[in-house]
Amino acid sequence: MRLKHLLLIVGLGFMLCLSPNLGLADADYSVFNQRPRLYFNKKQLEGLREVRSSKPYSDFLKIIRKRGRGQIGSRVPNNLLRFDASTIRRPADGLLDLTFYYLITRDSSYFHTIEDLLSLFSTNSDWAGNSDMGPAHVLYSMSLAYDWLYDELSPSLRLLVRDSIAEHAEIFYNLTSKREIWWSQDKGLLQNHNYVNVGAMAIAGVALYGEDKRAAKWLKEAERNFDAVLSLLSPDGASHEGISYWSYGTLWLLNYYSALAPAQGYEKVRSSGFLKNTARFRLYASLPGFQYNVDYADSLLIDYYGPGAFLRCLASIFNDGHAQWLASEIEGKRRKRTILWQDYIWYDPDIKPVSPSDLPLYGWFDNLGILLSRSSWDDDAFLVMFKAGPPQGYLALSRGVYPGSHIHPDEGSYSMWVGRKAIVQDDSYVLKKLSSSHNLLTFNNLGQLGEGGTWFLQYDYKKSKGAIPRARFKSGDNYQAVELELSGLYPPDVRPRSWKRAFVVVNGSDIFIRDKIEPSFSLYIKSLSHLTRNARRVDNAYCLDVAEGYTFAFKGDGFSSDIARYSIPTKSMGKNIPRIGMLFTAERKTSDLVSTLTALSRAKGGCASPDSVREFDPVADRAAVDTADGIYDIDFSNLSVVKH
């Protein structure tokens, strides 16, 4: 068989992105009547084996083998006593990687290790609590190994594995169907824990369909759950949890829908605004250079999983060349260390990669109110992010769903980078969620609803009816502008009558923020800007050393200001690492209507004359600014920018 024809089979047949049932009719689980049945059938498996020596498949296999060996270590553990719900993922994921590697290569040196791992999990009924993501990883891996190696396992081991899968799938079924745990309740429907746990139960249902009568109810409960999830996910493709958790959650959504495609089809995926647009969101959320991503909510500068594998799956489903390009670009910049076993089955060589050079330099994601704007697609470009929506998005808010955990009280905040270096930074995965850790206003030293705890306090947010109207968005030649009313996100006892923040980005590199505050009574107003690196004061503005000629200026009558080094304790990949920088604070106590202007730009005079604001008229709601790219008049009232 010619290689081109074979690659076509691998890309389009095995990936399940062309499914046998494209309608929205009831799922037909009876199609799962032969083995293997999860992600590929026997004929497709032979095709997967035939391309193992050709690129990129051979590269995928090298990483899969290396990761599997590293996750298991020098020998299989004797028991599970030392594992908790987090660490048990390693041997579980190692089992899956080694099983897939063996299945494709037939390298028998790994089969004994696979048998030992299956025996380990089957003879230890307590998988670190049996109620969350760690045990779900075990259930997922056991189910795939059982299906893929069904004819190769001894009858005794096969029986042990089957009974263990059934036992734990039933546990997850009870947790899900009876809403016995937080991730199975409404507040968990927008949380990655839900997708992992319910997805693993569904895969167990496929693995045991026809052997265990309970498998049908596991599958139906999973379908009900994921229908509810898809109805709430942000239709603009953006993530409320940030990129790290987006990568984990999206992987598991596609783990589920790809495995169930022979029974369900792919129409639910194709009709989901989130899944249709989320690769575009990930593209715009990439830092210049594409090695790292924007960090907000509890997420860091990296994806926790992939994202190449599921970007490739989305590329095939939606015929998206930009997603295909992004998958390869990120993996190349990260030296292929992000490759997963799913890359092997989800890669479609018929989807030609397309660079983003033909796309606009900004993306506006209106459900979550996220603006991402850059100066170019080059590695040394500027990138700006602004948040302008409710924490869970307008869709979920309209349906009364209030998720918590990984989100922050940070609406109206912004971040900025040059290349991979931050100029204005987010607080990252902090140990305590506070609005004062963001680039926001506080009133009487209080921030937005939901602050004050290790996790976002969703009940405070819900009880006080936290809400904001939809932001105004406008774009023109080389600029984007957003204005939103933020007062509704603050506790009633400090809530101003109005706080309107207008955020203007010019050329993807210069930002101007007008804050108009109308207090309900005398309020202590504090404006906070978290800058990185050193900031040197020159006249009435500051020179920032992170980018040549980049400057910071603040205008506000009656405000006193200060700048000092600060440190915020953060939780980065399980380690407490302080985030340091320069904190600019401007404050005033007043009951009067006040307006301020914050400017971060490449001033025309650079650090020799860093104040880019030539004029700010609070009454007229206008400003004239002088940047390295020219002189601009900004009318905040109608969100317009005119260049002289």
Report the average pLDDT across residues: 93
Q: What order do the strands of the largest sheet run in, or round the barrel if closed?
A: 7-8-9-10-17-14-13-12
Instruction: Please report which band the strand proportion falls in: under 5%, 5-15%, 15-25%, 25-35%, 35-45% or over 45%.
Output: 15-25%
- Say how many strands there are: 21
Question: For the CA atoms, what is the radius of gyration?
Answer: 26 Å
Give short descriptive properties of this protein.
eight-stranded antiparallel beta sheet, 644 residues, five-stranded antiparallel beta sheet, alpha+beta, disordered N terminus
Summarize the structure.
With 644 residues, the protein is α+β, with helices and mostly antiparallel strands.
Question: Describe it for me?
Answer:
This protein is of the alpha+beta class and 644 residues long. Helices cover 34% and strands 22% of the residues. The strands form 4 sheets. Strands 7-8-9-10-17-14-13-12 form an 8-stranded antiparallel sheet, with no helix packed on it. A 5-stranded antiparallel sheet has the order 1-2-3-4-5, with helices on one face. β12 (535-538) and β13 (541-544) form a beta hairpin. α7 packs across α8 (192-208) and α14 (308-318) packs antiparallel against α15. The model is unreliable at 1-23 (pLDDT under 50).
